[in-house]
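User: My instructor asked us to take a sequence, write out its structure as tokens, and then describe one feature of it. I'm not sure where to start. Here is the sequence I was given:
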Amino acid sequence: MNRPIQVKPADSESRGEDRKLFVGMLGKQQTDADVRKMFEPFGSIEECTVLRGPDGTSKGCAFVKFQSNAEAQAAINALHGSRTLPGASSSLVVKFADSEKERGLRRMQQVASQLGVISPMTLHLGAYNAYTQALMQQQALVAQSAYLSPVATVAAVQMQQLAALNPSSIIATPIASLTPSSGNEAQRCLALAGLN
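Assistant: Let's start with the prediction itself. The structure tokens for your sequence are:
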């Protein structure tokens, strides 16, 4: 071998995802110290942070990271749904924090649902099917826009492709509004697609 062997913890272990908890339905008045006090009986806490908005007010949730997975699991078993804290709208939520992959997938699902690109069924089938659906939508767009000039059709199709690959980089302009009848409108389509 030309390279030395590498030994490191698995991704979830190195980031602590198997021992980091999300705590929801906290009262807005609860501090980091209050949350830490609630979770201390279950083990050694490495981190405890109440999430706050830009103005400093609590968002009613926190992250708590234990030294071990067993401690985190014990806290979930004992506290999840066990009580409703003052100022909270429902019972306490205690669960493992989402991994980076899960957060990314949820963000993609939110953007896709806002743009109406992906149906709920597609969300369960994964990114491959989302791409397949985007291609089918692109083909339907080409069929619908047969009366557009060739330049405008290419611009509209490229906008659809960009939206499928990176929805947050596109201004949500309805494709149906891109029906140019003059050179100026074709230029507008090209500008929206980033081609000029």
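For the description part of your assignment, you could build on this observation: Residues 127-144 form the longest helix (18 residues). Try explaining in your own words what that tells you about the chain.
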